[in-house]
Each structure stands twice: as C-alpha cells, then as structure tokens.
Amino acid sequence: MFLTRSEYDRGVNTFSPEGRLFQVEYAIEAIKLGSTAIGIQTLEGVCLAVEKRITSPLMEPSIVNDHVHLSIQAVQWVSFINTVILVFLQNHWFTYNETMTVESVTQAVSNLALQFGEEDADPGAMSRPFGVALLFGGVDEKGPQLYHMDPSGTFVQCDARAIGSASEGAQSSLQEVYHKSMTLKDAIKSSLTILKQVMEEKLNATNIELATIEPGKTFHMYTKEELEDVIKDI
C-alpha cells in the first residue's frame, strides 16, 4: 500500500511511486519567485544582468551590491555560496597548483546540492534541497563559459540563459536575439533590454546589477554611473 503524497513530502530523499522527489520539485518551483537574472556567453566574455529587488525602503541598495558575485535569486544565500566556492578554489589550488575551470566549480557546487538529507553527510551538507538557481559565468582555458544549475543539482552549459520570476518570457526573448557572433556590447544591451521588458518596475540604475567577465581581465561590476550610461542606449 502506497503512502499519501503528504507522507512522501516528509522525507527530502524519499521517492514517490512515480519516481518523484516532491521536495526537489517544490524547490524548482520556488526559484520562479526569485529576481530575474540573465546570463549571455559571447566570444569576448560573459555578461550577467540581474534584477535587484529592494524589499524595504530602509534597505541600503549598496549593501546588496557589495556581496553579489553570482546570479542568485536569494540574497541570503550569496555569502554562503561565495564562501563555499572560495574553499573549493583554494583546496584545488593547494592540491593541484592550478585554477579550477568554470565547469569544475559548477560541478563542485552541484555535488554539494545533491547532499541534502543524508544522515551521514558532512556538516556542510544541506538538510533540504537548494532553493535557488545559479548562473556561473567565467573565463578559463576554453574561453568564456556560462553554466546554469537548478535546485536538483543538474547543470548544463548555455549560450544564454534566464532564471527567476520572468524567466519564461526572458528566455523566449533570448532565443530571438542571441547569435554566435554576438559581441559583449551587444549582449549587455540585449540583456538589459530584455530585463526592461519583463520587470514590473521601470528599469533604472538602482534596481538592476550588471557584471562582465572578459579574457585577461578581472570580474567587473558596473557602477551606478556606468549603468546609467548603458541604460541611455536602450
């Protein structure tokens, strides 16, 4: 006799008779409530554009800005994910005397995401599935790379990807405008144009964030003044 759905819900790693993990499905649905984020990979680099929601008029926008280095919908996860990735990078460097590839970093975080609910898991494991989707952008020996990971730990390499509450409409627009010969400047303009179309609020320099990663250069987070200049052209 099968258990009811509510009884399968109690265990984060218990499969239903249909082979479903309801807690993972709930986590995948939860990411549709997050801020919209867009990543585009070009031959010149990767750009990440994110809707920045200020949930309270008492919140200082720059505080959110200082901690964002990945496209993540839930701000409270940012410091945790950044710390985890930093540990992965340092351990890999000390062990192999080389930097990790973007794919290896994504794989490491994916492995962590799959450790939820294990009784014998290490202290860093989660008690439940990740409730966020991630876009990993970077440059390694293969050139600019963009990866997407969902709460199930599944990750894929993408040319262009949208996540968050307006991801369906944004992804459809990306499929229309993206092409392999797209320049980084075109990618920036396209990502902000799409955000402008799907965001509920009017797009401005305080409710979005934009970052680029180019070969031979470091991660660059656009300042408010730089954003204002870009927004004028869309």
TrEMBL record:
GO cellular component, one term: cytosol
Keyword terms: Cytoplasm, Nucleus, Proteasome
SUPFAM superfamilies hit by this protein: N-terminal nucleophile aminohydrolases (Ntn hydrolases) (SSF56235)
A GO BP entry: proteasome-mediated ubiquitin-dependent protein catabolic process
Pfam families given in the database record: Proteasome (PF00227), Proteasome_A_N (PF10584)
Presence of the UniProt keyword Nucleus in the record: yes
Record's subcellular location: Cytoplasm; Nucleus
Domain Proteasome alpha-type subunits: 8-30
Main location: cytoplasm
InterPro entries to which the protein is assigned, alphabetical: Ntn_hydrolases_N, Proteasome_alpha, Proteasome_alpha-type, Proteasome_alpha_type_5, Proteasome_asu_N, Proteasome_sua/b
Keyword Phosphoprotein annotated: no
Self-association and partners: The 26S proteasome consists of a 20S proteasome core and two 19S regulatory subunits. The 20S proteasome core is a barrel-shaped complex made of 28 subunits that are arranged in four stacked rings. The two outer rings are each formed by seven alpha subunits, and the two inner rings are formed by seven beta subunits. The proteolytic activity is exerted by three beta-subunits PSMB5, PSMB6 and PSMB7. PSMA5 interacts directly with the PSMG1-PSMG2 heterodimer which promotes 20S proteasome assembly.
Free-text function comment from the UniProt entry: Component of the 20S core proteasome complex involved in the proteolytic degradation of most intracellular proteins. This complex plays numerous essential roles within the cell by associating with different regulatory particles. Associated with two 19S regulatory particles, forms the 26S proteasome and thus participates in the ATP-dependent degradation of ubiquitinated proteins.
Family of the protein in this entry: Belongs to the peptidase T1A family.
Protein name as it appears in the record: Proteasome subunit alpha type
Organism: Sinocyclocheilus rhinocerous
